[in-house]
Amino acid sequence: MPPPHDHHGPPPRRGPIIKVQIAPPWPRRHHHPPPPPPVVVVQQPPPPPQTVYYVPAATQPPPPPPGGHYHNPPPY
């Protein structure tokens, strides 16, 4: 049996015991999800049409005249 004046234990509490509500350690989650970020649709301009260079076919030499040889046109 300890002596009546033992001061080795914790001091007696004075006054009512106050319960302190401690915030939960996990983050508070809202019931509704956050709104999605606004999606900005940028209209891409159509690409410029491909520049088509008209390349004529290789120029065919004129067929040789009948006779098998070239000659000057007849003088007027």
UniProtKB/TrEMBL annotation:
Region Disordered, residue ranges: 24-76
Q: Where is the composition biased (Pro residues)?
A: 34-50, 59-76
Protein's recorded name: Extensin-1
Native organism is Drosophila lebanonensis
Gene that specifies this protein: LOC115631801
